[in-house]
Amino acid sequence: MRRLLAAAAAALSAAALVVLPGHASAVPSPLPDFDFSACPAPPANADPGTWRCEAFVSQGVLTIGDREIPLGELRLTFSEGKVDRKYAQVFGELRHAPARIRGTFGAAMQLKYGGYSDFLSDDERRGELDLYAVLRHPLLPKGCTVGTLDAPLHSVVKDDPAVPFEVISQNPTTVKFGVVDTQLALPRATGCGHLAQVADHLLGLPSPSGANTFKQVTYVQFKPL
């Protein structure tokens, strides 16, 4: 994410030369409402003045083979800064409402945080995040999931050329970009009782790396801590 901040700063400097005061672009993009209530506090030994919270609002789509699942809105917050002059980050929260899966007789999928994240981007990827997906239906047990907290889905997202980085606002700093993971592997569903084979059949599971795509169009707003 440090490279994202540097890119934002460079883009803001360039934008200041070509736009009217108070405008980041000729045609402003619509902004979601950002919620910073789940921002984690900096560590006790954090370097003063270096920490900020980042609130993500994304629209996601998961494609499993030839099945496309619109995931709707995903919200994520985390804080980043420096401790002893070294980069550090603290995860806050992932929020996702159950998304209906078409053609599955009313089943829905809800993404949950899998316990690991790394948002320090580099030349190879934008970030990494562990997830698991809860499958919801009146006939399914509550523990029916794809991936688990103990064995999560590991998503490594890269920049999506179809949605290039864009500065939306200069004050507060707000940016937009797209990310994509084309290597996400999806195992068989687990904890689904006697309907496990039905769930796997309807979703096309297991589905190996290279057969799936996880895309997000993301807005991010930054708040100093």
TrEMBL record:
This protein's source sits in the domain of life called Bacteria
Signal peptide span per the entry? Answer: 1-26
Which key words tag this protein in UniProt?
Signal
Q: What is this protein called?
A: Secreted protein
| Source species | Amycolatopsis coloradensis
